[in-house]
Amino acid sequence: MTQKSLGFIPLIWVCAFCETRNPGPIKTCTSCGAPQPDDVEFLQVDEEQFNFIKDEALIRMAKTGPDIHCPFCGTRNPSTADLCSNCGGEIGMGGKARESGERVRTVGEAQEQPPAMAPEPKKARGRSFTIFTILGVVAVIGLCIFLAFLFMRTDDLSAEVAGVAWERSIAIEAYTTVTDSDWRDEVPEGAQVRSCTQEYRYTSEEPQPSATEVCGEEYVVDTGTGLGEVVQDCEYQVYDDYCEYTYMDWVVVESVTSSGQDLSPNWPATNPGTDQRAGERTESYTIMFSSESDTYTYTTTNVDLFMQAEIGSRWTLKINQLGGVQGIEPSN
Ligand SMILES: [Zn+2]
Ligand SMILES: [Zn+2]
Fold first, then answer.
1. Is 266 part of any domain?
2. For the CA of 35, the nearest ligand
3. Which ligand is the nearest neighbour of the Cα of 15?
4. pLDDT at residue 123, rounded to an integer
């Protein structure tokens, strides 16, 4: 967020002894003469509209920074003063700057409730939360080990080949125009940009060229000088060119497949047209086994292993705890 300044307005402070409302920059009560206390709260006079200060000297004062309390007598002096206006002491000898930067309340808000107290820090939850987190992590690790055990631990089983099946595919690719879209600075090199539109891309905390400024409600901040600064928190919605572009690439247009239920797998015939080519090949071999009590299916891409699976031959199967076939080998 960027805090944007709209200008300065006068604030008031209320005398604790006679309840007179005094102008912010005046340092003793105009009615009873009591000094303004160090921790006095400046308030915004309730108004429909801000009564912005036009006087250049006052604005300059508000901009110089918070007033400084004299280290000797406590009198509030402007931040530019070298010597205390009351006792003549040197302000530089440890003078303390007034609080500033706080959001200023209105007179109405101050009458409704006394100055806000810092909320009690909440701490109690922290520790039990940590314990539950540790217990949760331990439980998850335990479950993972258990599942891995079920999956990895195998028992040997003797079975006979009952059937085989194979399938082989070849992708057919065509060299063609591909359309895609992205932000202008993300369009790949060599691509042809067809058309772009301005679209919302991201929100920036800081002002950006050609961004849309979005600001929150106005509020008043204590400058520590008895004047308030009217500010707004703003963010910046950045718009950018989102473009449709085209480029040439090999694209899968179809896939030819052959399959069978014997031990003679073959690749399907391909007949690529103009600007076409044979692309990726995929193969899959399935062997069905039967034991005394059950049937099992094993699928592999290993053609050499598959070619040994004569119907009726004996194999050793590695069966995991979930009943899945983890591995096979011919029995001698
Ligand atoms: Zn007073
Ligand atoms: Zn002084």
1. yes
2. 1
3. 1
4. 54
The answer to whether residue 124 is domain-embedded is no
Question: Do 201 and 239 contact (CB within 8 A), yes or no?
Answer: yes
The answer to whether position 26 is within a domain reads yes
Tens digits of residue pLDDT in 105-130 = 998 888 887 655 555 555 556 677 88
Check whether residue 78 and residue 191 sit in a common domain. no
- CA distance readout (Å), 31 to 26, 125, 306: 12, 52, 105
Q: What's the 20 CA to ligand 1 centre distance in angstroms?
A: 5
Distance 13 CA to ligand 1 centre (A): 10
Tell me the pairing of strands 276-290 and 295-300: antiparallel
CA distance 290 to 296: 6
303 shares its domain with 318: yes
Q: What is the pLDDT averaged over residues 43-65?
A: 88
Q: pTM value?
A: 0.57
Residues 55 and 199 both lie in one domain: no
Give the closest ligand to the alpha carbon of residue 75.
2
Give residue 102's domain range: 2-112
Q: Are residues 181 and 167 in the same domain?
A: no
Q: How far apart are CA 243 and CA 197, in angstroms?
A: 7
- The closest of 40, 38, 8, 13 to 24, measured between CA atoms, is 13
**Mean pLDDT, residues 258-265:** 96
Q: How far is the CA of 99 from the centre of ligand 1 (A)?
A: 22
Ligand 1: centre distance to CA 219 (Å)? 28
Residues 166 and 298 both lie in one domain: yes
- Tell me: do 168 and 180 sit in the same domain: no
Ligand number nearest to the C-alpha of 32: 1
**Centre of ligand 2 from the C-alpha of residue 22, in Å:** 21
DSSP class of 49: S
Q: Kindly state whether residues 105 and 57 are assigned to the same domain.
A: yes
Pair 323, 200 in one domain = no
CA–centroid distance, residue 25 to ligand 2 (Å): 17
